[in-house]
Amino acid sequence: MPDVDALPSPTNDVRTHNIALLRATELPIARASAGAQWSPDCELPPSVWELFSSVDHAAGEALALGFAQMRASRDEASKPWLWIQDAQSIRHSGRPFLQGLPAQQRHRFIHVEARHPADALWAMEEGVRCDALSFVIGEIAGDPKVLDFTATRRLVLASERHGVPLYLLRRGGTADLSAARLRWRVGPAPSAPHRWNAVAPGATRIAAELFRGRGLNPDQFVLEHAVGTDEPNATAGHRLTLVSKPRQRPVDPERRQTG
Question: How many angstroms separate the Cα of 142 from the Cα of each of 44, 89, 95, 206?
Answer without folding.
Answer: 28, 9, 17, 22
